């Protein structure tokens, strides 16, 4: 859906509040109404007013699609019932026999979808270090049609060079898909760097309050958007109007929240880097991180996600994760409350035994917007 009510000269905060969200023309309500309807009256047979059935389109969903597309600098955006529904829809652009290159550090759900579902339908894949151009070039096959990149990655928080990957993929007539969930459009805009599609688990930072599940895809390619619109309607994995409303509400404060997430994360990184039980801290903003130069080039700041390993191995990692009082032991991320987890046993369990298997002593933090001294004290007592 093409963007409107979006002045390109507006700053990010103004777009987050206003893009795609005009006051209701009937009542003047400043908040987009929840159009809780499944169908719409037609003025004559086959003559509707822009909406015919809510699987195909819904005014609340349309506002959400306009809003996120504007933030990503995209001409088109499509909303889905979950991040995995959005991923599945993009992967349906492929045909049997096609090949996908994905990172060797990827979300477990993405790996599961590609390796255990798509392979049933004749799609093959390779996993490689997307931060290494030579390895990416070596991974291409005659039928490679897509590179699937996360940046920062989940859970090792590596940053891949989007411009370089775009050049490599387009030289081979392949599409570049970038998962921008961790960075959000506030910190990074992949389409402006050459990506063909951007995907989000809108459940995370876009929603921001652990109260809604959603997914989103943005593109500037009208042919791709036309096919996504067909698949969105044909498959039907669309968000409900109330979910769209909750996502719109969360997006309004995205910039404010991301600043606080980043502020808090930077101070926690400093604490962890000086703790005697910590073996290694993984954070894109650390100059010791191997992909720091890329992050410095293409990100505004470095986000609210932190991963670290501990000297005591799996047992100690589990003890810390289970010993916090403010950090909640839970999957997911990107919300106002801080979360802690063990990826190898939780979000990335599906990678066990594969080249993407995660270190069992790795702890992943989603840093919230609480008072940072309280968060540091909580980690300190759990690690003691």
Describe the structure.
The chain has helices at about 10-20, 60-70, 85-90, 110-115, 135-140, 160-170, 185, 220-235, 240-250, 255-275, 290-300, 315-325, 370-384, and strands at about 75-80, 100-105, 125-130, 145-150, 175-180, 195-200, 215-220, 280, 305-310, 330, 340, 360-365. It is of the alpha/beta class.
Topology:
Blueprint: H1 12-18, H2 59-72, E1 76-80, H3 83-91, E2 99-103, H4 108-117, E3 124-128, H5 133-139, E4 144-150, H6 162-171, E5 175-179, H7 184-187, E6 197-201, E7 215-219, H8 222-235, H9 241-251, H10 254-273, E8 278-282, H11 292-298, E9 305-310, H12 313-323, E10 328-329, E11 339-341, E12 362-366, H13 372-383
Parallel strand pairs: 2-3, 2-4, 4-5, 5-6, 10-11
Antiparallel strand pairs: 1-7, 6-7, 8-9, 9-12, 11-12
Total domain count: 2
Shape: globular
Structural class: alpha/beta
**Could you give the count of β-strands?**
12
Helix proportion range: 25-40%
Q: Rounded to an integer, what's the Rg over CA atoms?
A: 21 Å
């Amino acid at each position: 859906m093409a963007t409107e009510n979006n002045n390109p000269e507006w700053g990010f905060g103004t777009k987050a509040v206003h893009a795609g969200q005009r006051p209701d023309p009937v009542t003047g309500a400043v908040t987009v109404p929840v159009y809780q309807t499944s169908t719409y009256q037609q003025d004559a047979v086959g003559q509707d007013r822009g909406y015919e059935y809510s699987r195909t389109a819904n005014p609340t969903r349309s506002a959400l699609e306009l809003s996120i597309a504007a933030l990503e600098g995209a001409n088109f955006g499509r909303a889905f019932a979950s991040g995995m529904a959005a991923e599945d829809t993009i992967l349906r652009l492929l045909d049997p026999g096609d090949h996908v290159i994905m990172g060797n550090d990827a979300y477990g759900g993405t790996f599961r979808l590609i390796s255990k579902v798509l392979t049933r339908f004749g799609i093959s894949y390779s996993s490689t270090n997307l931060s290494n151009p030579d390895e990416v070039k070596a991974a291409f096959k005659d039928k490679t049609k897509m590179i699937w990149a996360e940046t920062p990655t989940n859970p090792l928080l590596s940053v891949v060079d989007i411009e370089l990957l775009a050049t490599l993929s387009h030289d081979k007539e392949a599409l570049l898909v970038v998962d921008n969930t961790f960075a959000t459009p506030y910190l990074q805009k992949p389409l402006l760097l050459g990506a063909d599609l951007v995907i989000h688990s809108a459940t995370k930072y876009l929603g921001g309050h652990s109260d809604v599940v959603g997914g989103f895809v943005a593109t500037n390619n009208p042919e791709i958007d036309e096919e996504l619109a067909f698949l969105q309607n044909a498959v039907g994995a669309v968000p409900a109007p109330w979910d769209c409303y909750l996502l719109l509400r969360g997006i309004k404060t995205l910039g404010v929240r991301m600043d606080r997430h980043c502020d808090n994360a930077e101070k926690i990184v400093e604490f962890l880097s000086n703790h005697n039980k910590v073996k290694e801290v993984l954070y894109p903003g650390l100059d010791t991180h191997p992909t720091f130069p890329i992050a410095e080039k293409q990100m505004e700041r470095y986000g609210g996600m932190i991963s670290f390993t501990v000297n005591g191995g799996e047992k100690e990692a589990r003890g810390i994760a289970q010993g916090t009082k403010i950090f909640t032991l839970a999957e997911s991320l990107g919300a106002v409350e801080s979360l802690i987890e063990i990826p190898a046993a939780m979000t990335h369990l599906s990678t066990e035994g594969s080249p993407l298997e995660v270190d069992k002593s790795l702890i992943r933090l989603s840093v919230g917007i609480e008072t940072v001294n309280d968060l540091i004290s909580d980690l300190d007592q759990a690690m003691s």
